[in-house]
Amino acid sequence: MRHADPNGNGPPPQSTGQPTAPLAPDLNLLRTFLAVYRSGSFTAAAKLLGLSQPTVTTQIRALERQTGREMFERLPRGVAPTAVAHDLVARVAAPLDALAAATGQHTATNEQAAPVHLAGPAELLCTLVLPALAPLTAEGVRLRVSMDLTDPLLEELRAGRHDLVIATARPRGRTLTAFPLMDEEFVLVAAPSWADRLTPRLAAVGPAALHTVPLVTYAEDLPIARRYWRHVFGTRLSCRAAVTVPDLRGVRAAVVAGAGYTVLPRYLCLEELASGTLVALYEPEDPPINTGYLVQRPGTPGNPDVIQVRDLLLQAGRTW
């Protein structure tokens, strides 16, 4: 009886006339796949694994044959993961890393990897992103986090000051690569003391009910509130902010305390809405949505930890 070799190069199994499920790739193929994915090239993965480059190529081809899917796009320098590879690494990376740790081995990561420089809006980083990355930092991935508005952060990314930037808008041009990360829904809120008076009036006369109420926002030009007014009420917001705080968490705290009303991303006030310390003043059928993006420079990052952070965030973003 003949057997296929571990790399998938042996003869195919004889047909029994019964339908068969696809073969599950063996651990060696998956380890090699993870090394290529994290290092960005067959050659770099071969060095990390102590294999020859032709062996790595053979194993990746075997994995692609077994799965019936292309894992990597071959580039002039290195490779780029396909969507299938992104999906596979989300399912196998953590179990392979756990198995390696349990057996005293190391997966294909660089123990001396440089810190990952991550930047984005302060509220999103502190509320969702850093908690999602806790498993990686517990495993030794180092992070250096910066907080600012999208436009200056994207310029700094182009200049090489960051590895990854969470942007509130898709960058223009082809100098950066953007992955959709999450959709944030905006909600018009106030404390119960204001909501009891405003909600009936808002339903009756529309946004004019808010003209005499203090508006709390994070910038003088009222970007979130103006967008909400255009999208929901089909009119221009014509008022000034009573309070400006350059951090939406501060805006939230002021409104919870009764300072007035504001527009917040729903993720940032879920607990307050659930507890009743904030009340949604209006629930439109089509609320404003903004898509956030995870942005990097084109090509495969030289630091494998950047890839780990990127992929974990893209996976976490599906649940936000």
Shape: elongated
The CATH superfamily of the largest domain turns out to be: Periplasmic binding protein-like II
Described by strand count, sense and barrel closure, the largest sheet is: 7 strands, mixed
Q: What's the structural domain tally?
A: 3
What is the average per-residue confidence, as pLDDT, rounded to a whole number?
Answer: 87
Strand content: 15-25%
Task: Please provide the ordered H/E string of secondary-structure elements.
Answer: HHHEEHEHEHEEHEHEHEHEEH
CATH topology of the largest domain: D-Maltodextrin-Binding Protein, domain 2
Helix content: 40-55%
What does this structure look like?
Strand 1 and strand 2 form a beta hairpin. The strands form 3 sheets. Strands 3, 4, 5, 6, 9, 10 and 11 form a 7-stranded mixed β-sheet that branches. Strands 1-2 form a two-stranded antiparallel sheet. It has 3 domains: 76 residues, Orthogonal Bundle (Arc Repressor Mutant, subunit A); 95 residues, Periplasmic binding protein-like II (D-Maltodextrin-Binding Protein, domain 2, 3-Layer(aba) Sandwich); 105 residues, Periplasmic binding protein-like II (D-Maltodextrin-Binding Protein, domain 2, 3-Layer(aba) Sandwich). With 320 residues, it is of the alpha/beta class.
What distinguishing features does this structure have?
alpha/beta, 320 residues, D-Maltodextrin-Binding Protein, domain 2, seven-stranded mixed β-sheet
